Structure formats: C-alpha cells, structure tokens
C-alpha cells in the first residue's frame, strides 16, 4: 500500500505552515508515498449551501486555509521522491492559463511528480467571489480540462469554448510529465463518475473515520465507474484511485490504520491520503500521527 498525508493547510495546522518544508521532508524520510493539498478559497459566514453540498454550515476547521499551489511548490522543493497531489482543486474557479502555469511550475520543480486532482466544488459563494456562475460549474469544468490539455500539449496553444477562452499564445514551457500530468477527478454522484469514466486518469473518493466508512458504497461506485469506462471504450484498469481518509476528532491511530487495511482488503485500493486536520492541532503532532499510522499499517 501507498500511504500519503495532507500538508499543513487548514484549521490550527494552517498557522504552522512555516514548517511545511520540514514536514514534507520528514514524511518522505518516514516512508510516506505522497503529500496532498485541498482547496478552500473562502468559507462563507452564512453559506447558501453547506459543506460537501449538504446542510447549511461549513466546519470551522475550514476557516483558515493556506494557498495550495504555494504549499505544493514548497513540498516539491523539499522532497525528491513523494508524489504531490491535490484532493481536490476547485478547477472551474481558476482561469486555465494561470492554473496551467502554476501546475506546470510545480511539476517541473518536482521532476514530474504532480498528481493534479480536480473537482467542481459545492460553494456558491466561492463562485460568486470569482465572478462565475455556480450553476454552470460542470460545463466550465469540462472546458477547463480541455483548455489544460491544449495548453499542456500544443505550442502555440489556443482554446475557445462557451465558458472558457484562451487566445493563441506561445506555450513552450511544458510539464515534466509527458504528454501531460494525469487528470484525477473527485466524484460521488453518477453524473460525476461519468466524467471520470470519460476523461479521468484517476478517481478521488473520500471516507471519514470512523463516522462515514461505507465500503460497500465504495465498491458499488467503483463497479459503476468501471462499467461506464467500458461502455466508453476505455480500460477501467487505466483509471487509478486515491482514497482520501478524513479523521474525526478523538480517533485513535490504530482505528485509522485498521480502517485503511480493511478498505484495501475489500476494495483493492492501494493508495490512501490521510488528513488529520480535524484531529490534530499542530504540524509536529500531525507528523507524529503520520509516523504512527505508517508504522501500524506496515505491521499488517
């Protein structure tokens, strides 16, 4: 199994981001496989839609949020082996030229270790702050992916869609990963899984330990994804999976490790991203938590 960990980005860990380079280096030295960021441009005081598209509240842990691109860049410079991923960037919020530039820079600094994960998001206020139509986020996502693909694979590059426009421009600086970094896509609904089946190189589901661990649902979602991929003429084996594991406050490291092992045995998923922001307050505490999880998982 490959076990990765979230960089210090949210909640109280965000106030320790000056330690990001040391954290990243130490995770690599301890045997971690990957380092990850999420994305929160803002957490509305009175949200129209709540966390994950449900309810009407957003966890206070998401109020402090550090910049994901800067953190990945720091981690890229501080490491030499671990993969560097986003689970997930709300891609439609970003102009594709700037998104491509930031991700290309990170991929080049890291020598081709970037795993860019994208999602459409659930916060109308984030779209309002970006001057974008929340109701068209799915269509904009499709065009942002198209534009990224064009920018990363052609020179000069140009893209024209209904929601995204990129004028023809010189684009000689390409990512280290060829022909482009893989597209990992977050998806829970059938509609979103269809997008993964059509164009995703990877799928990014999520569980919460111990409150929302639904292994049967994961199996069913992956089965649907595989069938949709086959219907579209794609090999399901070409679509990777990285499972995000959020941790409820007060959860033991033994419970986290046992859940990871159980999910691996029942689903075949072999790459996990552990996020301790709800459970651990400090960067040092998060690092120690990660070491314990790695040790417990390795014991089998």
From TrEMBL:
Q: Which InterPro entries is this protein grouped with?
A: Lucif-like_OxRdtase_Rv2161c (IPR019921), Luciferase-like_dom (IPR011251), Luciferase-like_sf (IPR036661), SsuD_RutA_monooxygenase (IPR050172)
Q: Name one GO biological process term.
A: alkanesulfonate catabolic process
Give start-end ranges for the coiled-coil region(s).
Answer: none
Please, which domain of life does this record's source organism belong to?
Bacteria
- One Pfam match, by short name? Bac_luciferase
Q: Does the keyword Flavoprotein apply?
A: yes
> Could you tell me which residue ranges the Luciferase-like domain spans?
1-277
Keyword Oxidoreductase present in the record's keywords: the answer is yes
Q: Which residues cross the membrane?
A: none
Question: What's in the keyword line of the UniProt record?
Answer: Flavoprotein, FMN, Monooxygenase, Oxidoreductase
Q: Which GO terms describe its molecular function?
A: alkanesulfonate monooxygenase activity
EC number(s): the record gives 1.-.-.-
* NCBIfam families in the record: F420_Rv2161c
Indicate what this protein is called per its UniProt record.
Answer: TIGR03619 family F420-dependent LLM class oxidoreductase
